Amino acid sequence: MIDVALNPADVAEADVAIVIDVLRATTTATQALATGYRRVLCTESIERAEGLREPGRVLAGERECVKPPGFDQGNSPLEALRRCGDELVLATTNGTPAIAAAADHAATVVLACLLNLDAVVQAVLERMSRAELRVQVVCSGTNGAVALEDVYVAGRVTHRLPGSRTDAALVAEAVARAFRAPLEPLSASTDARALKANGMSEDIPFCAQESILDLVPTLEGMRAGVAIVVASPDGAASPAGAEVDGLDRVGF
Ligand code: MLT
Fold this sequence. Notes:
Distance between the termini: 35 Å
Order of helices and strands: EEHEHEEHEHEHHHHHEE
Bound molecules: D-malate
């Protein structure tokens, strides 16, 4: 069964969850791994991100689109083009919490955006060829509301997956069909308006680039609420249990 959670409140049990926050968390995480960061440590709060600060770690994220005070960089994928450390700690409003929500409901969690659309579809198709799977695409949305750009990308993904689909997946596919090119839904969205208002318009065409990265960010494991995401070219989950220095220090 192919399903879409149009926002994180609809997350359900699945074998594979594909989390999307195309503007911009999953795009930034994907770009960071492509740039050469070894892991992306996704946290739900600014405080947890701050507690993970270590030499070699770069703190990135946003509140209301803007870099939080004391962070090294914002949530722009353009900033992730330059590797400034070994690991990126990422704290965002909707995207990183959606990853944690998906992790509670699915054995395998991968991150998708437009940059790695083909790679994600291929990885999931490969898994589906080996077993019957429940696949749920999780749209991160915006503060509990549906985000047009996430639903668009969800539809682009599900339309290439075989099997029966829920009405939510059919809705996403109808949205995907309604646009000629990715830049249209991305530019029309509420999140795009917020980026433009904050002087970050250039992030929108960057996030609209399609299938330029052959990389599937995959959840390696959750440790004390931190989602450890690594690059997995084939979407196969890496062995869980990796250590993350600093977790104990922040009292998890
Ligand atoms: C989020 O997680 O809410 C976003 O990625 C927002 C943003 O990029 O500013």
